[in-house]
Prior knowledge:
The structure is a homodimer.
Chain A: E1 3-10, E2 13-27, E3 32-38, E4 42-47, E5 50-54, H1 58-70, E6 78-83, H2 88-93, E7 101-105, H3 109-118, H4 120-123, E8 131-134, H5 138-141, E9 149-155, H6 169-178, E10 179-188, H7 195-209, E11 214-220, E12 230-236, H8 247-252, H9 262-268, H10 273-281
Parallel strand pairs in A: 6-7, 6-9, 7-8, 9-10
Antiparallel strand pairs in A: 1-2, 2-3, 3-4, 4-5, 10-12, 11-12
Binding site for S-methyl-5'-thioadenosine (chains A, B): 31, 106, 137-138, 162
Protein name (chains A, B): Polyamine aminopropyltransferase
Catalytic activity (chains A, B): S-adenosyl 3-(methylsulfanyl)propylamine + putrescine = S-methyl-5'-thioadenosine + spermidine + H(+)
Amino acid sequence: MELWYSEKHTNNVKFSLKVKEHIFSSQSKFQKVDIFDTYEYGKLLTLDGLVMVTERDEFVYHDMIVHTAMAVNSEIKNVLVIGGGDGGTVRELVRYPFVKQVDMVEIDKMVVDVSREYLPTISCELDNERVNVLYEDGIKFVKDKNNFYDLILIDSTDPIGPGEGLFTIDFYTNCYNALTDKGILINQNETPIYDEFFKVGINSNRKLKKMFPIVEVYGANIPTYPGGYWLFNFASKKYNPIDDFNEDKWNSLNIKTRYYNTNLHKGSFALPNFVKEKLEDGNV
Amino acid sequence: MELWYSEKHTNNVKFSLKVKEHIFSSQSKFQKVDIFDTYEYGKLLTLDGLVMVTERDEFVYHDMIVHTAMAVNSEIKNVLVIGGGDGGTVRELVRYPFVKQVDMVEIDKMVVDVSREYLPTISCELDNERVNVLYEDGIKFVKDKNNFYDLILIDSTDPIGPGEGLFTIDFYTNCYNALTDKGILINQNETPIYDEFFKVGINSNRKLKKMFPIVEVYGANIPTYPGGYWLFNFASKKYNPIDDFNEDKWNSLNIKTRYYNTNLHKGSFALPNFVKEKLEDGNV
């Protein structure tokens, strides 16, 4: 017998992983949560049937959502993570000694619980003394915060289900206000390969540009995500991700990474023409 | 009824495209040749059941195998393409007015014939007056050439079937001799995501390094290839792909591209740490 997990990236493209064992399956208050043990990518967490993280390639996403911002401003003290229940983003953040406080606001406690149990290499820093894990709605949480966070990382699902409100102008406005005057916001910005995804990414990018003086897009190769290529928005009040990037400073921290490096940092902002054009035109 | 084409990227990872119609299928003297019409990627050419090109994402591969070299040396006159029977590489080469002669040596005439018939947007320049299409074994063809080609592009399948001899030190030695003293050789260098592929890529890279003083690796996002991420070797007798890269010169040519641009050129040589380490260690 063979057991395969399949995700339809579009109605006409399917990505499948051979499964050793379907370890966990439950419906939380917010979404369906599953853990599979796969042959090629180790443990896999899916939410509503879509790949969130695998043990083998999670380092790409977590390196790129965290280190890109941290390397631009080495005075980041207070960080807010919206979502990120698997803990990978938090794990990378606490590697910086100058980070004082990480508030991780995850709406779905079940995601944190299964990650603690089945994904220990990812969730391993959730009990770090600088980390506060809050089971709350990030949209509500950020509303009354003002001029406090140096960095906000929106480590969310796509805008279906609980992630929906994390792509609105109201939410971005509240994030803007929650940030200090040197604040940076990063959010995952979908794949440009398939239009259904990139429509969401383009919209998110346009909304952030209405507020933040600096919004740049960068990309990374994530083999288990649709198209194998994923984008992020770098939205910032003061620092430009290239011009204000101090590579010597970051390299002096001696943080060992498997994906990120300072050359790649610069390279990741060099987008293919079809991506740049779609972002500029606003059409997919 | 639903018809799906599936490729196993490893024994445990499968990529599938929904098919409108299986248009062509035949066994040539060298390999199995198929054309499918897919919903998401348009026409798809497979050789021995593996994706070679699709109409929708072929521009990535062909941009990156051609323009990266052409932008480093703007005096390239004589080009040899080994393989490349679909014609996409030739199509990009003849966009340069200073290219005088392109010899395309494709062992399998059936690949050229089906591309002419079913992939006209890719094969459209095979009858260009500067192009010689030769149905010969590239390994033999290159043996007695000396100091003639400014650029050799090895646009081959993986080293299974007819592509096998294109990954040997003998073949690379003959290519080296066939190149002028400013010669550049580019070959596709597999995905670093799956070890079975990257073993081949690392070997090819090591062999080229024994001969060429400059060998650098660059990458591109090709969604229908394993891992969605593909590497190329840039092997060169004289020109460094970054230090000798004249972006103003290339931009002045006004060649419109959908993937390649001069920022991306530089960015594509910035590799993730896990790729750099595997290339340096020689182990996967």
